[in-house]
Design brief:
The chain has two domains: 5-70 and 181-255, 3-Layer(aba) Sandwich (Rossmann fold); 71-178, 3-Layer(aba) Sandwich (Rossmann fold), CATH 3.40.50.1000. Helix content is 32%, strand content 20%. The protein contains eight helices and 14 strands. The protein has helices at 24-33, 49-58, 71-82, 126-137, 162-172, 184-194, 208-218, 232-237; strands at residues 5-8, 15-16, 19-20, 37-41, 68-69, 87-90, 114-117, 141-144, 150-153, 156-159, 177-178, 201-205, 221-225, 244-246. The chain has a six-stranded parallel sheet with strand order 5-4-1-12-13-14. A four-stranded parallel sheet has the order 6-7-8-11, with helices on one face. A two-stranded antiparallel sheet has the order 2-3. Strand 2 (15-16) and strand 3 form a beta hairpin. Helix 4 (126-137) packs across helix 5 (162-172). The chain starts with a strand and ends in a 10-residue tail after the last strand.
Length: 256
């Protein structure tokens, strides 16, 4: 491929749960050896960027925190550009640490500028979702950290943020602003950091919609891996196809 850089998904591409994909570390080392630029673009919304970086280190990857791009970074930039900083955060885990100086996380407070929706897992109760609905009909903007339908956990598929974002949109009659993949702005943020145009880069991911279709619409080539949430039937029925399909990131060297 005549390209200069790669954007690479994390969950399902480099690792699943607490296990690195076989050959993933060697694939990243190969990119370094061949002097390709690369950044990691993940739709994870349960962990702050520092925690994501620490997890990669534990799994044996030598990846600096500054090379990891997550939806909270885009959301914070979005809020800064608008000069509005009050938000109700619907997430779980420690991702709140990326938002600490910006967000009012009190679900009783409807006077917020943004309802920020990520993967909240078991915390996504009726009460929390209804508090978010009231904030939205009260004037808050819906910011979707990601709009994935599901993700692959070690014990099987799990609902992601998308179904809950859709519920808020339907109930409030409003459209969300999506921060993570497949948002073009999110891809562009990582591309700018590498100083590359879309046609000079390739996206490597396991999701035909957020990774592959998002990248192709941005003007990038796209490589789909048969790991993580990959589904053969989804690939067959997809309107937008990947440039390449490989068994795993371990086979990335085959198409360089």
């Amino acid at each position: 491929m005549d390209v200069k850089g790669f954007l690479i998904d994390l969950d399902g591409v480099l690792y699943i749960g607490d296990q690195a994909i076989d050959g993933a570390r060697a694939a990243i080392d190969l990119l370094k050896e061949k002097k390709y630029k690369f950044r990691f673009v993940s739709n994870t919304t349960r962990k702050c960027r520092k925690t994501v970086s620490e997890r990669l280190v534990r799994l044996g990857f030598d990846i600096p925190e500054s090379s990891i791009f997550t939806p909270p970074l885009a959301a914070i930039a979005h809020m800064n550009a608008a000069g509005k900083h009050r938000c109700l955060l619907l997430t779980t885990g420690d991702v709140y640490r990326d938002f600490e100086q910006w967000c009012d996380r009190n679900p009783e407070n409807s006077m917020v500028d943004y309802v920020v929706v990520g993967d909240a897992g078991e915390k996504m109760t009726y009460g929390l979702l209804n508090a978010a609905f009231r904030a939205v009909i009260g004037g808050a903007e819906i910011v979707a950290l990601e709009k994935d339908r599901y993700w692959m956990a070690p014990d099987g598929f799990m609902l992601s943020a998308g179904p809950f974002v859709a519920a808020l949109e339907f109930a409030a009659g409003k459209t969300s602003t999506v921060m993570g993949k497949p948002s073009k702005a999110f891809f562009d943020m990582a591309l700018r950091d590498m100083d590359l145009r879309p046609d000079q880069a390739v996206m490597v991911g396991d999701d035909i919609i957020t990774d592959i279709a998002g990248a192709r619409k941005t003007g990038m080539k796209a490589v789909l891996v048969r790991t993580g949430k990959f589904c053969e039937e989804t690939l067959r029925s997809a309107v937008i196809k990947p440039t390449y399909v490989i068994d795993s990131i371990a086979r990335l060297g085959d198409i360089l």
